[in-house]
Amino acid sequence: MLASLLSAANFLWAGRETVALGRAAFLNSIYMLIGNGGQMIASLGVFLYLARVLSPADFGAMGVAAAIVDLLTVFARFGQVEALLQRGADDQAIRSTAFWGLTAIGLCCLVVIAALAKPLAAFTTTGVVAPVMIVLAAVPLIGNLGQVNEAIMRYEMRYRGIAIRNVVATVGGAGAAAVLATHGFGVYALAAQKLVFTIIYTLTVLIARPWLPSLRYLSSEARRLFSTGLDVTISNTLQMANGRIVDLAIGFFLGVVALGQTRVAWRLYDFSLQLVIAPLSSVSYSLFARVRDKHDEMKRSYLQYVEIITLIAAPIFVGVSLLARDVMVLLAGQKWESSAGVLAVLSLSILASCASLIFSPVMVATGQTRVVRRQAIIQTAANVALTLIAAQISVLAVVVMYLLRMYVFALINVRLMNISLGVTWREFVYRLRPILAGIVGLSAAGILTRTLLPETHEIIRIFGVAAAGAAGYAFIIFAGDKLRLWPDYVQEFTTAARSILRRKAPVQAEAC
């Protein structure tokens, strides 16, 4: 989002004919930056508090229930916001058709969640899962009641309401969870957080953009809307399923306590990804879409983007891996020390994440959307098989298998992108060699510093290892530049970063 904000500002200051649209993009980027930032801060704060107050069993029980609820919530949306933005967000009859369809899907999901409550509780031998799922059964329906209003707001580029909705809903849900957790309601505090968030989330968008449906329902438009939303639904649901499959497997084979320990580590990892990766990835679709008809520039942008995002993200997550125990104990408390191994392994997946991050934008820009769908299906199938095998052993085995799968598919995705853009493996690795060498320097400096500070406080170790690792990383890169191992690398990186940050921000609502 920061990159999108900077590029929108550059577009605005350029003084072009479309200055009004540039100004709108700039302001909307500010709104979304404030909304996402406020949401992240509130979510992280209450999460860390709940981690100290609640038990691993509470997080595990919620993880089992959320696995089903979250999947059906994503499915229930059925890509209707995107479908309306494509065509019909300004037509009352089409809006009403989408609303009644979403309401019907939401009701069906409510029934399915309620019906699955007892069987899932028996499946995981955790009785509290059933009442938690009953509490959360209406979440997909409540969320769907505001989907058309959100589409209208995006179409009209009224992002101020969306930003306010994100912050208010997150703070409201966090407050409810904190109060209930403090008064000993355990897992129900986590359930209340999700339910209250959804209610406020929907109410605020209804207030920000009032709209009421008519009784019209156009069958022809319904077929178009749901056909358009199908691809979005498949992609989003499979993406969500990859994480939830892991939750269900761990919950069933290893118990809810093990799942709770896994979920807390995974949540910290997700927060880190949102903090570091999201600002870097916000311009990826528009970046590659702008140069899709210029092969040489597309190839150059691809290599530059991989280089920049890896250069920034890789050292941060390798450092988190080295400091996993100290980070877990400092942020969540001593009882989560056993989660450190999960966080350490997950953080090592960053190179695969950086490579896979741009797979969809590159494939979409080159007109190969079917490849994206195929890879998502294959990856989900592999995830199911490997997770079920690893769950027979231990939580760490599940996470290691996840790590290996990430790298295997990252290599496949890189190969597909390279073939599409005419990039050789030698060119790809050649651009990353300073970063890979720098990571070696970071790891050596960090491990050495950690051995010299064995009995110190977590904060001292974190700052000491982080400072030493950063120094080692920078030293290797600058030394290699001076020794002509990768000549002019620092200057080229600076130029490439400025080039990407100055790309014009997309002015269409769905891209902001």
What does this structure look like?
- α3 (56-77) packs antiparallel against α11, α8 packs across α10 (187-208) and α11 packs parallel to α19 (369-390).
- The protein has 512 residues and is mainly alpha-helical.
- It has a domain at 1-243.
- It is built from 23 helices and no strands.
- 82% of the residues lie in helices and 0% in strands.
- The protein is globular.
- 48% of the residues are buried.
Show the helix and strand layout.
Layout: H1 2-13, H2 19-53, H3 56-77, H4 80-86, H5 92-124, H6 129-136, H7 139-144, H8 147-155, H9 159-182, H10 187-208, H11 219-253, H12 256-281, H13 284-290, H14 295-322, H15 324-332, H16 340-347, H17 350-357, H18 359-365, H19 369-390, H20 395-421, H21 425-452, H22 458-482, H23 489-501
Helix pairs in contact: 1-2, 2-9, 3-5, 3-6, 3-10, 3-11, 3-12, 4-8, 4-11, 5-6, 5-11, 6-10, 8-10, 9-10, 11-12, 11-19, 12-14, 12-16, 13-18, 14-16, 14-17, 14-21, 14-23, 15-16, 15-22, 16-20, 17-20, 19-20, 21-22
